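Quick one, T. Sequence first:
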Amino acid sequence: MHERAPSTGIRAILFDLDGTLVESPIGFDEMKRRVLALARQFGVDATPWSPWPTLEIVARVREALGCESGDAAARFAVSANQAIIAVEMDAAQDAAPIPGVPEMLRSLDAQGYAVGIVTRNCRAAVERALARQPLACRALLTRDDVAHVKPDPRHLTDALEAMGMAGQKALMCGDHPMDIAAGRGIGAVTVGVLRPGVAAAAMAEAQPDLLLGQVTDLPRYLGPCA
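Structure tokens:
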């Protein structure tokens, strides 16, 4: 844990979903492998972009194909999206809220905080994952619901607008550096969560305002809702 998160004036709290609120065994490596293989089938060597997240690789391959054939770019996008969703849907079958999270979200809501969830996952997988145990929130925006996904800060501003909280001081909490980058992009207080078995260095390098060992520790650092 780095330091106390400045809580004064916060009215809205945005959370990432997978790895932050929900334990979801998404096979990101398998997802990327499928997309890279698809790119090769379309004649694009995407190996130089392999360190990037999968969605960003898809966007780059589409740009490369678009220079040659718009039809090829569209067909690749459809195939890649299907491959990604297949992995996400498989993981959603075994997803479950992290212990204590449902109670934490209900408590934050009862205290007057506007709680929102912003995820790069698809809508169908999120609905499957939360069907057994819904999570209390005023807005849940998947990548299917927005034009720009994290780390683009507009994903977060869209959620704040959906909650009627545009312009209010917010806090962004997630388990990936892109969550911290997105939060910083809107001037939010940023909170990083360390997933079990994941080195702290990458998250610490993102320099969140607060670094937690588990997300359910967050309420103790929050004052009364503004």
